[in-house]
Specification:
Elements (H helix, E strand, L loop, with lengths): L1 H14 L29 H8 L5 H4 L1 H7 L7 E5 L7 H8 L4 E6 L2 H13 L5 E5 L12 E7 L8 H11 E12 L15 H10 L2 E5 L7 E8 L11 H14 L4 E2 L2 E2 H10 L5 H7 L5 H12 L3 H11 L6 H27 L24
Parallel strand pairs: 1-2, 1-4, 2-3, 4-5
Antiparallel strand pairs: 5-7, 6-7, 8-9
The structure holds S-adenosylmethionine.
S-adenosylmethionine binds next to strand 2.
Length: 373
């Protein structure tokens, strides 16, 4: 156990040797004058391959858990900012499949050369490796579904501006996952280089994201998710068709059995009543005062898979959405994510359960009180 712990410490120490000219003292409080980031030299590739690809790293980095948080689907485009030696690339490549694309971006030219060779060697045909500028991820507007930034956010200069560029690069419903070290972690970069989750959240918010920490299983790190916001269209006005659909839900509400906060019967009867032209009305029901209506409409979207979940994520960050509706929608999204992670994890890693140890969050909102499970 002690030997394991020592090996882990050595691995992490390798990850965070300070750059020449930057204080190694972990108690140092200030960045060098004028710096807004931790400028570190990553050109010694053999050294970083050894550190980043150490088999011991998985014990604390939990890459499968991190990738689960991205909720990737086949066909998605995901960019890994500061991809390094490509620790996450095989997993990302598998998650997005042959129809998807992984953009592995890094500022260090030697790292990029190494990673290009690795991608070729490992036959990762859906991974594109690209050298990028320090201040610009070089992504076209609306071109990616997800962004991953592991142990790299604190290296980025002008992070609020960088966050804006990331925000523009995301498609509607997309989000960024930032993983970095906690202040309490006994290991990690020097104290002056560490950023609190609150700082990362503020920087993402300055870039236009709705950001929050999420529950995770990482022993040394925190995870912040920044969701791309959409311009609110305001709370939709009730229509006669919405009232009809509410009647369908309410007519069946008391005949049903609830499972994990979802009334399968109301969802089924609502699905049967809907026509393709009803989509805007169904969206409007997410703003409804009655939590059973909100939950049923959200469950119909959730049952539509990735496209439906993208609508829910978009509405969940709409400023016009009342907080109580948001908690119901968040809960439906979370339940769907847990189900997907379980299914995708089992298929992807060949195990009956995903490796992520995070338990699904307990249902919230009024509908949860109806839960029989
Ligand atoms: C600590 S390593 C993390 C590598 C990888 N994400 C991982 O977890 O294994 C940080 C990486 O970010 C890259 N990097 C630093 N500043 C960057 C920037 N402004 N833009 C893109 N990559 C950057 C470095 O070259 C290095 O490869």
């Amino acid at each position: 156990m002690l030997a394991d712990r020592t090996r882990l410490s050595i691995t992490i120490a390798f990850l965070f040797v300070p750059a020449p000219g930057i204080a190694a003292d972990p108690t140092s409080a200030a960045l060098p004058a004028g710096a807004d980031h931790y400028d570190h030299d990553f050109s010694d590739i053999p050294r970083y391959v050894k550190a980043f690809e150490s088999p011991d790293r998985d014990a604390w980095q939990k890459p499968d858990d991190v990738v689960s948080l991205l909720q990737l689907w086949p066909g998605n485009v995901v960019a890994d900012i500061g991809a390094g030696t490509g620790h996450f690339e095989p997993r990302l490549a598998k998650a997005v499949g042959a129809t998807g694309r992984v953009l592995a971006l890094d500022v260090e030219p030697h790292m990029v050369t190494y990673l290009k060779r690795r991608v070729k060697r490992e036959g990762l045909g859906n991974v594109t490796v690209q050298k990028v500028a320090a201040r610009d991820p070089g992504l076209a507007d609306g071109s990616v579904d997800r962004l991953l930034v592991v142990n790299t956010w604190h290296h980025l200069p002008e992070r609020a501006r960088y966050a804006s560029a990331l925000n523009r690069a995301l498609r509607p419903g997309g989000f960024v996952v930032v993983v970095d070290f906690t202040a309490e972690s006994p290991e990690g970069p020097p104290a002056h280089a560490r950023l609190s989750p609150a700082t990362v959240i503020a920087e993402l918010q300055a870039g236009g994201f709705s950001a929050r920490t999420v529950e995770e299983s990482l022993p040394l790190q925190y995870v912040v998710i920044g969701q791309k916001q959409v311009a609110s269209k305001g709370r939709p006005a009730p229509t006669a068709r919405q009232r009809q659909l509410c009647d369908v839900i309410k007519a069946n509400a008391d005949r049903a059995r609830f499972t994990r906060g979802v009334n399968a019967y109301t969802v089924k009867t609502l699905q049967e009543a809907l026509t393709p032209a009803d989509d805007p009305e169904l969206r409007a029901l997410l703003f409804h005062d009655d939590p059973i209506v909100t939950r049923t409409a959200a469950s119909v979207f959730s049952a539509r898979g990735d496209r439906g979940l993208a609508v829910l994520r978009e509405i969940a960050v709409d400023a016009a959405l009342p907080a109580s509706n948001r908690s119901v929608i968040d809960d439906v999204i979370w339940t769907a994510n847990a189900r997907q992670a379980s299914a995708v994890g089992a298929a992807r890693y060949g195990s009956p359960r995903p490796e992520r140890s995070r338990a699904p969050r307990p249902p919230q909102g009024t509908g949860a009180a109806l839960d029989e499970d």
